[in-house]
Amino acid sequence: MDDDRVGTPLPLGDLFAEGPFPSHHPGCFGCGSSNPASPRIVFERRGDLVRGVFTMDLRHQGAPGVAHGGIVAAALDEASGAVLIPLQQPAVTVKLEVDFRSPARLDAELTVTSSLTAREGRKFFIDTVLTDGDTVIATGRAIFVAVSPEHFQRFGASPGELSSVGA
């Protein structure tokens, strides 16, 4: 990813107020309260940014003492999707690029921030940054594509089950 391509966040509208978000469903890997593997990322809206905080533990370990790269990528993907909550837009990931910069320590409070930087038709372009204090752990760039609520229902979601994203 090119560091110089970080765009100005686009407005997230007024459908969802400032403050904390609900998990988009209890079984979600990234934010779900019922998923025993979830790091339970807690997201909130701050203007046109979305910010999440969480801590990873031994369930998320790669090498001793640090998180597996897959969970780091999953956190960036989850934060990318969280940008769509204020827009009430159901969408799916079609591309995720991750640049790993530093190991993610276990048992440390991490912060992931995301912003919508462009929109072209059904495509949403989203930038993310995962930090441990002032240390950048990873950056991400995702493309999500808008889908109808029926997309999720075809795979088992009940109507209204994903109301946090309008599905």
Structure description:
The chain is 12% helix and 35% strand. By secondary structure, the protein is mainly β. Residues 1-5 have low confidence and may be disordered. It is built from 2 helices and 7 strands, in the order βββαββββα.
What is the count of structural domains? 1
Instruction: Give the number of DSSP strands.
Output: 7
The side-by-side strand order for the widest beta sheet comes to 1-2-3-5-6-7-4
CATH level 4 superfamily: Hotdog Thioesterase
Question: What order do the helices and strands come in, and which of them pair?
Answer:
Layout: E1 19-20, E2 42-46, E3 49-55, H1 69-82, E4 91-100, E5 109-120, E6 123-132, E7 135-146, H2 149-154
Antiparallel strand pairs: 1-2, 2-3, 3-5, 4-7, 5-6, 6-7
Features:
167 residues; mainly beta; Thiol Ester Dehydrase, Chain A; seven-stranded antiparallel sheet; 35% strand; disordered N terminus
Q: Could you provide a short overview of the structure?
A:
The protein is mainly beta. It has helices spanning 69-82, 149-154; strands spanning 19-20, 42-46, 49-55, 91-100, 109-120, 123-132, 135-146.
